[in-house]
Each structure stands twice: as structure tokens, then as C-alpha cells.
Amino acid sequence: MSETHTSNALNAYACWVAQTARDWPQDALHIAKRSLIDTLACMVPGAADSAPSKLWPVVKTWGSGPSTAVARSESLSAPGAALFNGTCAHALDFDDNFDPAKAHSSAVLIPALLALAEAEDAPIGDVFDGYIVGLQIMGRVGQGVNPFHRSRGWHATGTMGAIGAAAGCARLLRLDAEKAAHAISLSTSLAGGFMSQFGSDTKPIHAGLAASGGVQAALMARGGITAGTGTLEGPTGLRTLMVGPDVEELAASMEGKAEHGQTMRFDADEVGEPLHILEHGLKIKRFPNCGSLHRALDGLIALMQSHDFSADMVENVHIAAPAAHLRNLMHENPQTPAQAKFSLEYSLAAALYSGDVGLDDYEPEAIHRPQVRALMPLITKDYVEKLESDFPTQVHLTLKDGRNFESHHAMPVGSKAHPMSDEQLWQKLETCLASARGFTPDSLLEELANLDPDKPCRQLMASTQM
Fold first, then answer.
1. SS3 of 405, please?
2. Are 157 and 205 in contact, with CB atoms under 8 Å apart?
3. Please, is 15 exposed, middle or buried when counting C-beta atoms within 10 Å of its C-beta (0-12, 13-18, 19+)?
4. Could you tell me the residue range of the domain that residue 304 belongs to?
5. Which CATH number fits the domain that encloses residue 188?
6. In terms of pTM, does the model score above 0.90?
7. Which whole-number Å values give the CA distances from 66 to 60, 84, 128, 142, in the listed order?
């Protein structure tokens, strides 16, 4: 894979996007394929959720086009389809996480690339190629601003996602290095999203806006629109504005540390090494809720399975976890399904009640179950001011008979450390598609079982429509 060395990170990233060879390792292509399957598993049933249902009558009035709207019978422009499908992909909060960027990467990249590939009549192989490239740039930029970008309240799915999508779409359009730089730079003006939106309809729309922004930025760059060269670095660049005026002090504090490769500095020398899709991988979700819950849920469920106790035997469940995780879980008394996905108290109580947590636990009628509500006061928590890599989530459980159990989980099920098998991923796909109201999954399952890189993307997307 070729590398171009330059002191300007934007130019280095753009050169790599434009010039790196398409000879990806088979393991990288396999992960990209898994990410496509997992994203479509989330996207199709997600179309019936609150935010997409409300968004659809808005976006469909903006005009039709060549790109499919999932679980609908109409098509939209490429930016419109990316907006709608990206929102669908993130609506259930069942889509994967990507640690270097601290973002839901695939819910942005896959909808953006699929929409643009349809518009360009490109094959599925171009989506895989654009995905690997977009993920790398999303990760590289994310490593330059995290962990403090996220810990200060930015939703990186909206910020880093837009930049990664622009890079992936520039790759799919085969833009040269100059235009790829303009696309990435343009995307910083379309990047945004605050954690204050968590628990609202706007949170999943962040993924849609980022996907659409990436498509728009790449198309505008192809059309000759120019953008600044100082949008990542410098006193008015993304790194300063989206971290803070103390960015250099924070970067110095990260010397000798690497939180998922995050150094608070942009690496302009070895853009493609290591390849993020292999080095870090994706966290495929076991549970349809905020990823900050997963280590605690893994721990609690493992204790229940190992020691064979029921909810009525429990005195207390105390969670000690990184403060950055617990701050994401701000809804202690959730009143909507979206809020419940960001509630430690509700989600652990639901797990105590049934022994697991699934899509049914976040239906409107489920979140007010008196049996689950009665268990919520048993859940207590301790905010630990340490990086997530420095402090595994601890579950301390006390039974009414005085017995005590505990578990420590550093990485969740679905991560590179504890991966889902292909068979488990396929089971997730089938379960998700079966939950999609009014959708017949046979055609989509057949397409995903036979993902030929040379097959037109349009053929795959036709199987996602109602």
C-alpha cells in the first residue's frame, strides 16, 4: 500500500485515499462484509423506529432519485437515501462501535457508500473498498482528537463519521488527491452532534446527517468546489475547536499512552499502517442499546449464568465503571424507549428480570413493566475517573442470603477480544429481520449469503425494499 509523506495531515490522508492500492487482505475484506451484514440487520427493522418513521415523510418530499430507501418502496437522491438509511441503521442502537474514532462507524459508512454506489451504478466491491478506506481515515482523525473530543460531549458518530464517510465516498468516486482533500475538508463543515441529544430522535439522525454529509462533500468536491487546507490543524482547525484551547496540554498528557491508538495527534506519516479494520476491528453489538452498557451487561449476565440465581434473590447490584461510560447513561428513570437505551438502571434491571436483553425490552410497552421497575432501585453505580482501557467495568452483586459475586470486564462480547462468530452474526441478522414489521427477508438473506463483489450494488439494495 502506497504512502505519501507530508506535514499536513489533511493532504496526507487525501493522498492515501486517492493512491493506496485496492489489494486488501482477505481478512480485511471479510470484516467489511460482516460490517455490511450487521448494518443491514440493524437498518431494515430500524426503519420502523421513532426517528426514521418521523423523518420519512419529510425526506420523501425532497425528491426521488436513484438510491434505495430501505423498508420503503420509493427511492431518493443519494444524499437523501444516505440520510434516511443512516438514521435507520442507528435507530435501534444495535449497530457496531469503532474505538479509534469513538463512533458508530458502519451506521454512517455503509449507508453513505450504498447510496452513492447505487447512484454511480457501482459494484459491491467498491463499497467494501470505500468502507476500508473511510474507516481508516475516520480512525486516524478520531485518534487525533480523542479521548477528550468524546469526553467533552461531542457525538463522534456525527463528527468523525462525516469525515470518514467523505473519505470513503471520495474513494468510491475515484477522486484524485487534490479533490479528495477538498472532500475531507468540506466534510468538517458538515460534521456535528452533541451528546445532549442522547435519548431523543435526533441522536440516530446524527448518523444519517453524517452519512449524507459525506456523500455531499465527495460529490461537491468532484464538482470542483474547493475547501481550506487548514481545517484539521491549527488555531481554527477541527482539533482545536472540537477539543478545546487546552488541546496541547491534553496531548502532552497522553504521551506514552494509547487509548485505542488515540494520541491526540494526527499521524501523517504512516496513514495506512496499521490498517484499522484489522488492528482494532469493530465491536458488533450483542445488545440493542448504548455500547457503554455492554461491559456491565456482559458481567451481570455471566454472573447469573454461573451462579444460577434469580432476580428475587438479589439485594444489590453495584457497577463501578469509567465515568465517560456512565455519563453516556444519563437516563436514570427513562420514559421512552430511546431513553431506556441510555439507562444503566433500566437495562440492568431488564437483564435481572429475564436473564438477557433484546429488542423486545425496548418496545414502548416494555419499559414500564412493574416487575422491571421494581428492580431498578437495586442498581447503584460509581463513576471512576479513568480511561476505559485503564479500568475494566466491575459488577459487584450481593444476594439476600449474604453471598457476594463480582466480575471485571475490559472488553465486551462482540469486540476483537471476544468476537462473534459468523454463525452468531447470521443469527443476529435473522432475528433482526424477523422483527421488521411487514418485511419479507428471504430475498435479502439470499443476497447477503452470496455477496459477489462484482454484483451491482443496486441488486442488493432492491432486496431491502418493501
1. strand
2. no
3. buried
4. 291-409
5. 1.10.4100.10
6. yes
7. 13, 14, 20, 32
